[in-house]
Amino acid sequence: MPVYVITGASRGLGLEWVRQLSQIAQNTIIAAVRTTSPIPSSLASLVARPSPSIIHILQCDVGDSSSVANFGNSIRAVLGTDDIDDSRITKIDYLINNAGMSTPQPHPNSLGLEADDLAMHMNVNVVGPARVVPALLPYMRRGSRIINISSALGSKTHTLGMPYSVHTAYSISKAALNMLSVHQALDLRVYGIIVVTLDPGWVKTDLTEGEHAPMKAEESVVGMLKTIHRLDENDSGRFFTFSGHESAW
Question: Is-above-0.85 flag for pTM?
Answer without folding.
Answer: yes
